[in-house]
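User: I'm writing a short report section on ligand binding and want a predicted complex to refer to. Could you take this sequence and zinc ion and write out the structure as tokens? A short remark afterwards would be nice.
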Amino acid sequence: MALTPTPEEKDTSRRVSDYFEQIRHDPLLLTVFFSAMPKGGDLHHHFSGSVYGETYWQILSDSNGWINTATAEVDTPGTEHLAPWKRFGELPRNARFDSLKQAFLRMASVKDYEESLRPSDEHFFATFTKMSFIASFGMAHGLRELKERAVSEHVQYIETQVGQLDTAIRLPENTGWEKILTAASLKDSLAVFEILDKARATLLERGVSGAVDNFLHRLERLHYQANVDDSTFMLRYHLAASRSDAPLDVYRRLLLAFEAVDRGSLVVGVNLLKPEDGEVSMRDYRLHMLMFAQLSRLYPGVPYSLHAGELAMGMVRPEQLRTHITDAVMTAGARRIGHGVSVAYETACNALLDTMARRKIPVEINLSSNEFILKIKDEQHPVLLYHARQVPVVISTDDAGVLRTDLTRQYVLLAARYPSLRYADIKQMIRNSIQYSFIRPAAVKNQQQQRLDAALARFEEQVLRTHRLIKK
Ligand SMILES: [Zn+2]
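Assistant: Sure. The structure tokens for the complex follow:
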């Protein structure tokens, strides 16, 4: 924990705060300010969406991958294709090459996005399907990009969601479990837990632990070979399940993820992926929450953050905006909430906010992402509601590559849009990003907190020196 600030430190912070108020309506000066400000961690983003399209292009070019010269679709070098596909090496570097690259960047991100051609949520989520195979193929390259960007914008820690782990091990067919699960999920939690206990015992008997060990072994080798961690930077992973899959597929993936975190590995958290308003996601939402409840009894030390309330009025029926965040907190026991945008529509909104404040369950706020996907920004966004009700807030990117943004930009938007947030509030949000991270053991988290506090103190001194605000 931080030491109580000395009177000099308090005075320094106050002067920086005064300067901050002077520049807060100037987006360029805010950019200079937040670029240099140590920002702790980025706790919410997806690996394949955080790598920029230019990097994917480079990975394909370096490995002599494939490109469809008519559509700008791409493929890794291992497969064979016919015309109009060409190897990167066969393409002359001319204007046609440049325009293919631009078409590819538009496909990989929001670059030059044209709303009339495709809904923004569809465009956003489609990038994951299109890019994730290049992300796994060139993972070391992607990790280096994330690290370089983090270090250059004074981010010391990242928790990145790398998607789902799978194994060939399956549950027996014709058990009827899936049917019972779907039917029981809304009224009989005990019946759900009973089936899930059986499913887990069967998967463990059939050897899923070995699959987890193999995956972790590969991940560790890659992580250390790519020199991701050093004295300035640390990166950890989340594994997830896709909420659009069939119930027992979701459960299998969650079990693998819980097992991976339980090993004390580089994987420190579990999550759920895919649009929350999808047909299956909506139908099975409560069932998924019960899966987390069951797994958390068996793996009490495994933390998870859940995407919940990444919804807006009009995307679903109003009745479907009433319970997701409450269920993620109360039923599933989420340690953090991703997005939480639709909180004001929750039936138990007040009780929920009180619980989040009391249990210190932070909300991961993603301003650019919510603006692009949900069309929610400014006073429609609940960041101030959470803050006013003393729910810890963390600021994250979700996702820098797709949205062509960075963490600095998220703080600039926060400061510019919400003038009632003072410098001290924003500094606290930055400190929250380490405090509520899933870094372990506690001693390592402590070191990271001390590093951040020391870096913030140096930053404040630097601001005062640069702007000659030191009292002499
Ligand atoms: Zn997300």
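A remark for your report: The chain is about 55% helix and 10% strand. The pocket of zinc ion is lined by residues 44, 46, 307, 338, 398 (CB under 6 Å).
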